[in-house]
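Is adenosine-5'-diphosphate placement plausible here? Inputs below.
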Amino acid sequence: MTVQPSPADPAATRVLVLNSGSSSVKYQLLDMADHSRLAVGLVERIGEETSRLAHTPSGEGERRERTGPIPDHEAALKAVAEELAADGLGLDSPELAAIGHRVVHGGKWFTEPTVIDDAVLKEIERLVPVAPLHNPANLTGIRTAQALNPGLPQVAVFDTTFHTTMPEHAARYAIDVRTADDHRIRRYGFHGTSHAYVSRETAKLLGKDPSEVNVIVLHLGNGASASAVEGGRCVDTSMGLTPLEGLVMGTRSGDIDPAVVFHLGRVAGMSADEVDELLNKKSGLVGLCGDNDMREIRRRVEEGDEAAKLAFDIYTHRLKKYIGAYYAVLGRVDAVVFTAGVGENSAPVREAAVAGLEELGLAVDSDRNAARDGGPRLISPDYARVAVAVVPTDEELEIAQQTYALVNAPAA
Ligand code: ADP
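Reply from A.M.:
I modeled the complex. Tokens:
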């Protein structure tokens, strides 16, 4: 499956990272010589009248904004290319080594980042039935970028790759094997670039090699997932066939008895699409209390709001269950690490998730937990047997690093 490009020009040290969603494109241009960001931007509401492109160049450059209709991804990427070119960073610049694309679903076949050719595009397309919301947008992004600069290496970095090391007993559901195989039903896991990056950075924080440490990573953003990482390899993760399974999220239910789906069909007359929408968009924190922003939920909790308190308690109870489960899976744990929007910023969530786990060697120091510090840091007391840490994630840097390493790898 791996196609090796010819080694890139050593002067080409820049990588453009593209994350194409169904109605948005996020991008960052990084210089791999020093990991600096040369430009960061976002196009949102593609296909609507009120599309918006926000572009921030590095250094002294002013943030620029375009508003007005951007009909499709092709127009969006063209606008991004124009903004980059205006700063002398165009897609045709010789310093650009490659474009790294975030691709959500790589199935179990893409076990590493991959240079994109026609066969790879076909395979990503074959995975559309298991990732109907994400892979089509990723494909459009890739095809448009290819058309804009056909000679430039384009690399797919998959959310699922880090989890392809999961053993079969963690990846398989206990359902009829033939049915599962016929329809590619298994646990794939997502947020892989974040789990990979954060588990490695946690080892660094502990002064150890990733191969020496066992880490439980809690990626808590709008989407949320946990993973058990043994010696640098993922051995279990909470998301499954789709990003719906596992933790309570902003709008997704996470784990639920599958019979709820049949029950809603029978007693509420809901169609499969309606239940899909309910569990993905109207559940989780939003379903429980009407808000999905943890800041707002905490504000309401402080005011004595019962619904917000229950939502917070359900969220942190689920987190605690996963910490316990992955502790058991790993046997020995060196660190529990929190990352992404909620994980990096919400001290109350971190405190509640590990409360009462002292017997497992887990504790949080309240001053360290409350300290506002942007970098990787320990929040456990010095005496704790297991480190509890906050490590900011950086999925764009991870994608850029993997892309750059691949295009600079010596030909096989
Ligand atoms: P995603 O990339 O999945 O969209 P993020 O990792 O950016 O999400 O996380 C977004 C979420 O982080 C917000 O919905 C909010 O709940 C939470 N968040 C952001 N800042 C804070 C904060 N200061 N305190 C608590 N929660 C926060």
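Short version: Residues 208-395 form a domain with the Nucleotidyltransferase; domain 5 fold (CATH 3.30.420.40).
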